[in-house]
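Q: Could you write out the predicted structure for this multi-component system? I'm mainly interested in how the pieces pack against one another.
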Amino acid sequence: MLKDITLGQFFPGNTFMHKLDPRVKLVVCFVFIIVLFITENLAAYALAALFIILGVKVSKTSPKMLLKSLKPIMFLVLFTSILNIFYIEGEVLVRFWILKVTKEGLMTAFYMTSRIIMLVCATSLLMYTTSPISLTDALEHLLAPLNKVKFPVHEFSMMMTIAMRFIPTLIEETDKIMAAQKARGADFESGNIFARAKALIPILVPLFVSSFRRADELATAMECRLYQGGEGRTRLNVLKLTKYDYVFMVFSAISFVLMILLNVVGI
Amino acid sequence: MEKVIRTEKLTFTYSAEEARSFALRKVSLDIEKGTFVAVLGHNGSGKSTFAKHLNGILLPSEGKVYSFGFDTSDPENLINIRRNVGMVFQNPDNQLVATVVEEDVAFAPENMGVPSDEIRSRVDDVLKTVGMEKFKKHAPHMLSGGQKQRIAIAGILAMEPNVLVMDEPTAMLDPVGRKEVMATIHRLNKEKGITVILITHHMDEAAQADRIVVINAGQVTHDGTPREVFAHRKELLDIGLAVPQTVEILDELGLKDVALSVDECCDILEKYLKG
Ligand SMILES: Nc1ncnc2c1ncn2[C@@H]1O[C@H](COP(=O)(O)OP(=O)(O)OP(=O)(O)O)[C@@H](O)[C@H]1O
Ligand SMILES: [Mg+2]
């Protein structure tokens, strides 16, 4: 049933990776992606791959799940690689008809592909091992300096939390409305794209109306529970760095510095 | 007895133009500490409107509402009033804020600025009170309606209120969920001395209250113990309210007694039949 969907892609667990502070994971993931984009070196990439593999092993993520998360971007990766291989000028390796494969093209394609794959792997690992609520929590903390330029950080993270809370509710409701419309003879499966889009109207309209009602009721309920924005608010779970976080931070820092060094030295 | 809520000629209209369409008209009520009050009324009679006045979600067009002696129309008092008068609504789905049960229950104390370790102990306490301590790490959408409503109640209890106002908290629940929630509310009333104001359409729920207030077209028509109120079966029928079956049977037989439970009804019938 639709009701059984999990929120986000979080897989609860009790591994080293799960215990890490979400802020640390978020920052490390972000820095990792930056390092990937500023380096272009075989040894550095091998190190990056090792870093990912270690993460997979430590978090006990099934490699199958990780491969699954790569599926949606495969087309994009293939497409850009092909363009890169054939269109970049340089030392020609093979030539047939009007197409030529250059060494530079091959290398660029390789780096691009590895970069995107590792980027997706790293973010997936983050999502798999961090609950959505701690993720928004971490975001709120990390973005806190933006408060100074009047960016509503707390409101933003509250919005994310509520959105995540209501995704399953709305999916369930869509399910019900669809069933109700089908029972009245609505047809969502046949006809051309316009006919199908039109068939969605009787679903979207009630969904919208009920969402407004929900929003109104939720706002009242939040008011009854003394919500007054982020000011003066305390938290049930306070984020605190532990020994695990320091170990992870030092390890990641060393790996990233090594990657950059390898890139500079150019082995 | 200490009066926790007092309304004086509370009058309210939703639209300023149609000043004649009053949702509430001159409602004056005193509610004493520790009582279990049921509010009855036909659809659109003004029950929800009344409830929303008790913690200042709505403010009177005329008249006054005092919660714990604080005037609800003074914005300075609102925080104090709301933490003392908790409110639970019909649809549990539209009251839960967070994606994890314990985070949701913690929402109100977080807003109150309660220190983390105290929030933790409050959350554990109230989850135990509503019998949901096993579910604290669950996602709300995986729970049944009755369980969700109990979480909503826990979320309010975490403010440590003295009054619990419930607007048809069992309306969307199946019989099992209804029983769970009603048992929880009665326990809170008996054991913690929390004043309960329960808006309901279920006569059997009302029959268990200490006091029943009947509202029709924005006005209080009856106010008294269940026995007193249900004795006016005809008048209640006229404003679209049924009485519990136990009361109905005896009335049809022309008996003057009012029975609030099946056992009581059986006893009276037995006595009647044996002559
Ligand atoms: N937001 C609103 N705007 C305008 N009129 C409203 C609003 N809410 C309620 N009313 C009107 O006020 C009157 C009282 O409504 P209220 O919701 O208090 O009734 P109720 O007794 O709670 O009914 P129910 O048993 O259906 O919940 C009704 O006539 C209703 O149409
Ligand atoms: Mg109502």
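A: Regarding packing and overall arrangement: The radius of gyration of chain A is 24 Å.
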